[in-house]
Amino acid sequence: MNAVTLTRLAARDRLRHYALRNASLLLSYLVLATMGLYYVAYAGSHGQLSVFSVTSIFNNTMPLLIAAIGQTFVVLTGGIDLSVGSIISLTNSVAAVYMRDSLGGILAWSGLILLLGGVAGAVNGILVAVGRIQPILVTLASLSIWAGVALFVLPQPGGAIPPGFTAVLAGNAWSVIPASAVTLGVLIVFWMVFRRTELAVSLYAVGDDERSARANGVPVVWAKVAAYTLSGLFSALAGLYLSAVTTSGDATTGAIYTLTSIAAVVLGGVSLFGGRGSATGSMAGAFVLTLIVNILFFANVNPLLQEFFQGLVLILAMAASVLVNLFFGRST
Q: Domains in the chain: how many in total?
């Protein structure tokens, strides 16, 4: 057996090993590609494919996509964050009421809002990691608290977001590329870099086996606090993006993102038991959920049935993930 044959066999083994470990992730990419191609074909055949329509899809997806990334950090540790939606509502309300149309005002309030989200997440993390309270109980309480604060800040929908802020986050770069697409590229690069950090390794280790991780010197408490802090930070960023897209505030607008962020994570192949998955899969899941709504809209399906079809796709995706894992001799 010559060197070329050995090299080919080694490459084939590496590819097979990657497919075995990332079957669910690859499936999420396949679902996204299929739905994306269907949307392009359908919209193009009906004359509805344009820079504006593509920009709208990116803009509508970004708040969910960013929230799903934040949720991924927590789910990787084996936890769950139900406060995502209320933090988005709070940050959206604060931005709509207090952000002023000046560079200094935009930067200052954006920083304060991100800090607010990070602190809210850190409190969750401390209660979970140090207080050893179940994540679902802690974040459910946080959901109620921050939802109440959001209503206090903005009792009725309204307020305004500076046009310059909207142009930067939700406009078109060079009049062709959606600014959201540029943001997406930045987030992908961020994850690729983060994935190789010590903190990321700790998150995966804690989610895979917390006892073993602690026995091997992994800072479990720090990892959990960091995960929830990042979730809060990304939830705040999602709230800022939602503000830029909607150009106004609503203290209840973030409620939908609590469950949809979890759905995007599941569609993206991230294990709810922790220790396995990727934020890029969660990003793909967010786009799938958005494309479902757009496809149903173009198909003139009753809007009341949209949630039904979203749930149906979610169930089918999970079932397909289980079948793929069983096919490769793995259990989920």
A: 1
What is the distance, to the nearest Å, from the Cα of residue 270 to the centroid of all Cα atoms in its chain?
A: 11
309 within domain boundaries: no
| DSSP SS3 for 208 | helix
- Which residue has 């344009």 as its token pair? 50
Q: Tokens 């392009």 label which residue?
A: 40
In a domain, 139, yes or no: yes
Q: What is the DSSP letter of 275?
A: S
Q: Over the stretch 168-212, which tens digit does the pLDDT of each residue have?
A: 888 876 567 888 999 999 999 999 999 999 999 999 999 999 999
pLDDT by residue (tens digit) across 88-138?
Answer: 999 999 999 999 888 899 999 999 999 999 999 999 999 999 999 999 999
Q: Give dist(CA 165, CA 106) in Å, integer.
A: 7
The token duo for 45 is 């055949």
Asked if residues 325 and 24 have their Cβ atoms less than 8 Å apart, the reply is yes
DSSP at 315: H
The answer to the question of residue 313 being in a domain is no
What residue numbers bound the domain in which 115 lies? 61-283
Please give the helix or strand (H or E) that residue 265 lies within, else none. helix 256-267
